[in-house]
Each structure stands twice: as structure tokens, then as C-alpha cells.
Amino acid sequence: MTQKILIIGGVGGGATVAAQIRRDNQDAEIIIFEKGEYISFSNCGMPYYIGNKIPNREDILYATGDFQAKYQVDVRVHAEVTAIQRTTKEIEYRQDSQIHTESYDTLILSPGASAVAPSFNGMDMKRTFCLHSIPDMDAIHSFIEQEKPTSAAIIGAGFIGLEMVENLYSKGIDCTLIDQSSQVMNIVDSDMAQMIEDHLKKNNVTVVLNDALYYFSNQGQTLHLNGGTSIQADMTILAIGVKPNTKLAEDASLAIGDTGAIKVNAFMQTNDPNIYALGDVVETKDAIIDIPRNIALAGPAHRQAFIIASHIKGQQIPYKGTLGSNILKLFDLTIGSTGLNTDRLKSLNRDYETATLKTMSNASYYPGSGEIWLKVLFSKQDGKIYGAQVVGFAGVDKRLAVLATAIKGNLTVTDLPELELAYAPPYSSPKDPINVLGYKASSKLEEK
């Protein structure tokens, strides 16, 4: 009997799991319901299209017709699923102003997350934007091309906020970055964040911390902050964060975890074994410490798609948790982190130690070397690595990759000096920065 699999939501989670299932099963009936127009696109590429680093809009889109033809999947766009009937194994969805139903054998939830976009008094929606979808991207791009803004305020100093600063700046737009926290980029520790803040200021970005937007005036062109100051901006980007889209799951009495995302087991099943979930909407466990995590990153979503497809065909391959490895480009600076940071370890009452290193990415006499800062957080007792952060102008990505792999491989800081990493002057030093960081961390263990 042909298996009927319905997938709610496309993009990184839904489209990937559909493709993976089709590779494993040529006979299954697969239907994707996407409430928007686009079945698959690169969220991560959107800021770079706005900044003209990706000049062709189509390069970040996967045409629906091409996806359907390649994977033999029934894709229904502009189809918003409104209810899940678990007892009858049906969904209800709205398309063309009509309500339809569809039965399923297996249901996969990939509704993603939505941008947090509070309403402020005086806000002008024509010049105030979020960036979470292709229509959002098109609206920003169109505003810049038509209105020629010369100034922008960016609310939120996380991934999207910092990427938008770089790309708006590249369009000749003066940027003011505002965040209610005491530092930019809360995913890294304050000492690493200070380097990021300094780099922003070096590139003529105004940074306002410990303050938040209160209201707008002057047709949305004047931002009044809680602290009493005001800022003039032709446009505003709200990059406050995202929230998992859990309403469908909640209405269907599926379990919601402590993080506010859908709770799943190691095989990405909800508390209904016929319903799976993945991507930005799910709560999984941390890969280092057994605590719940909700991570909105593409890499984990792709792995979760493989886990689900494998489980549907009878292979029990567990999802072993999320490290949250991430990387960001900010002008010519690269920022990356993996695992847990100081704030998280303190909240968990973990006894930890840190080691930091400032050095050059490769042989200083070779052209192109740049400063790089590394930090590792580890157990005082046994050297277990809890997390790591890397900031610098060259070689950040490979050092971060090594540290993330070390955590996954259960290496300790005492193993880092033993790693035999390739050396030539254009790439490293005879003792790679990872090795040196390991020596520094190991010496702190020896002092105990």
C-alpha cells in the first residue's frame, strides 16, 4: 500500500525532508503545503541580495516547478493548514478562499518560526521592516531602490541585525544599531562582543546599547528610546528575534517543551508517533549537556530531515542533539561560536574555566595574515569542552570547525595540543592557534 506523507511548510526543513524521503522511497505520495508562494529559498542569502552581493534574486530561490519535477512531489503553495485532526488523521487547509481536507498516514510539521514584530506607537509600516521571508526581502529591496534612504535604524544586534548593518552600509546607508542588552551578539561572551562592537564603530556604525525602542513619531522617521534620546532614520529594521510557529501543534494537543517549541523524541517524533516535526519549530536536546534547546539554524534542520526520512523507512538513527555552531561575516571580520557560552554555563551552575588566545591566523610574515581571537570554555574537573568562540580577520571558519568537531568527538582541552593540523605559511603556524589554545587551557587544569 502506498504511504501518504503530508508535510506542512517548505524551506530548509520541509523541502529537505521531502527530497530525502523521495530518495529513499520512489512510491510514497508526498504533498507539501506551503502558505506562502515559495517552496524553498535561502533565508541566509536574503541580506546579501539586499546588499547587492547576490545580484540575481533567482539565485536564492528554488523554483516550485523545478522542485516538483525533480522530486515528484505535489507542492501546494498559498495553502495554509488551519487544523490537524489526529483522530481521523486528516488536515484542513485553506487555498483559493476554500477549506479543503487531506488524509495522511504520516504528517511532518515544518512551519518554521516568525519574526518577533511588536507594534509601536507611531510606526509607519511603509518604512519599518522585518526580514524573515521573500516578501520581506522584496519590500526592503524595493524601498531602498525607490525611496533612496540615507539612514537606517536596526533594532536588535543578533545575526540578522548585524548582517543587515553590513549590507545596508554597502548601499551607502548610515546605520544605527540599537539593542537593549549590554553587548552586541549575545551568543558570544562579553569580551568577544567588545571586539565586535569596536569593529562596528570603526566602520562608522553608531551603536546604542542598554536601551530600547519606545515609540515612533514624524511618520515613523523619529525613533524615541526608553532612555529619552531620539534617533532620525529613513527606515527601520526590526531584528528582535524569532518565535516558533506552534499554534497548529498546540491546537492539536501536541506536547510543547520548556523552550516553547514542539517537543520531539530522538527520532523527531512528537507525542503522536504518526506526526514528526523539525527545524525552527522543534525543541531538541543540547549535544553537550542534556538540556532542552530550540535552535533556528539550517544545519540542524537538514540533519533532522535525514533522521525523519530514515525513521520512516525503518532505520532508527537518533538525533544526538544540537551544538548550535554558527558563523557570521561583519565587514571584514568573522565571528563564530559553538556550544555553550558563559551566561548559559552560569545559569546551569556549571563549574567551568576559560582560556583565551590572541594571535595571527597564519605566519605573520606571509601576506594576508590577520589577527584572530580564540576562546574555549571547559570543565575544571576533566577538561571537557563546553563551548568555543572565534573572532578574527582570517582563518576563523576552520578553527571553529575544528573546535566544533572536537566537542562532537568528546575531546578535552588536553587533546587540543595533540591535534596534528596542516601547516604552511599561507594557512597556519607550526603550532596552530588551536594547539596553543589547548596548551593554555591544559595549564589551567594542571594548576588545580
TrEMBL record:
Residues 330-428 form the Pyridine nucleotide-disulphide oxidoreductase dimerisation domain. GO terms for molecular function: oxidoreductase activity. Keywords: FAD, Flavoprotein, Oxidoreductase, Redox-active center. Residues 4-305 form the FAD/NAD(P)-binding domain. Gene3D superfamilies: FAD/NAD(P)-binding domain. Its cofactor is FAD. Belongs to the class-III pyridine nucleotide-disulfide oxidoreductase family. This is Coenzyme A disulfide reductase. It comes from Virgibacillus massiliensis.
